[in-house]
Amino acid sequence: MSPSAHALFAGEGRIERLSPANRGFAYGDGLFETMRVYQGTLPLWPQHLARLRVGAQRLGVTLPDAAFMQAQIAAMLEGVGAAVLKLLVTRGDGGRGYAPAADATPVWALSLHPLPVVQTDLRLHHCEITLAHQPTLAGIKHCNRLEHVLARAEVVRAGMDEGVLCDSDGRLISATAANVLVRRAGRWFTPPVERCGVAGVLRGWLLAQGLLEVADLSFEDVKNADALALCNAVRGILSVSSFEACRWHAHRETAELSMPLMHAYPMFVPSEVSP
Amino acid sequence: MSPSAHALFAGEGRIERLSPANRGFAYGDGLFETMRVYQGTLPLWPQHLARLRVGAQRLGVTLPDAAFMQAQIAAMLEGVGAAVLKLLVTRGDGGRGYAPAADATPVWALSLHPLPVVQTDLRLHHCEITLAHQPTLAGIKHCNRLEHVLARAEVVRAGMDEGVLCDSDGRLISATAANVLVRRAGRWFTPPVERCGVAGVLRGWLLAQGLLEVADLSFEDVKNADALALCNAVRGILSVSSFEACRWHAHRETAELSMPLMHAYPMFVPSEVSP
Question: What ipTM was reported for this prediction?
Answer without folding.
Answer: 0.95
